[in-house]
Amino acid sequence: MSELGAVNLGKITEAIKQGPRPVSILWQADDTIAFVARGREYRSEFHVDPSDEVMYMIKGEMNLHYITPEGEHKVAVIGEGEIIYCPAGTPHSPHFPPDAFALILERKRRHDERDRFKWFCERCHAQLYETVKHVKDYQEDPVSRAYEEFYSADSHLTCSKCGHVMPRPDRYRQNETR
User: Fold this and answer.
1) In this predicted model, what pLDDT tens digit does every residue of 40-71 receive, in sequence order?
2) 3-state secondary structure (DSSP) of residue 57
3) C-alpha–C-alpha distance, residues 167 and 34, integer Å
4) Dist CA 16 CA 175 (whole Å)
5) Is it the case that residue 173 has pLDDT exceeding 70?
6) Which of 99, 32, 34 is nearest to 24 (CA)?
7) Predicted confidence (pLDDT) per residue in 73-109, tens digit
8) In what helix (H) or strand (E) does residue 144 lie, and over which residues does it extend?
9) Is 30 exposed, middle or buried (0-12, 13-18, 19+ CB in 10 A)?
10) Which residues have a Cβ under 8 Å from the Cβ of 69 and sit 6 or more positions away?
11) Bridge-partner residues for 76, per DSSP?
12) Integer Cα distance of 26 and 19 in angstroms
């Protein structure tokens, strides 16, 4: 066994503030993953994890949007210093500002498991797009990769049920077709 060492979450959040990446991986062991995430300015997808997830708000407040098994859209508010358990398979979308930080604890994905990233129409809640990924290494920032894929085509943003077009955040506008 190697030496055990504590992690200073204050130093981790300061390093994230100074760097370009919204996530700092604390560890990826055989069975567990732990990381600190900075809030993103724009979060619109619902992530469906194949494993349970625990979120602890280090700083700030999170509005955790989620969809119940009955299809109802709800929001759980997690304040600074609070923790929440999100069961495997629950579509969830953590909304918190860039100056807020959360500690996330999950099980590392098994070879046969896939994460799903889903977007829904802001008007009628019909599903717009879904991408399925095997998340083998969180260093690859799977959430950012899913967003790049979603915003890469106008067809992904257009609701086939009501015709509403989801607007692109500024950071993805360079991909817009003119």
Assistant:
1) 877 889 999 999 999 999 999 999 999 999 98
2) strand
3) 32
4) 27
5) no
6) 34
7) 999 999 999 999 999 999 999 999 999 999 999 998 8
8) helix 142-150
9) exposed
10) none
11) 64
12) 15
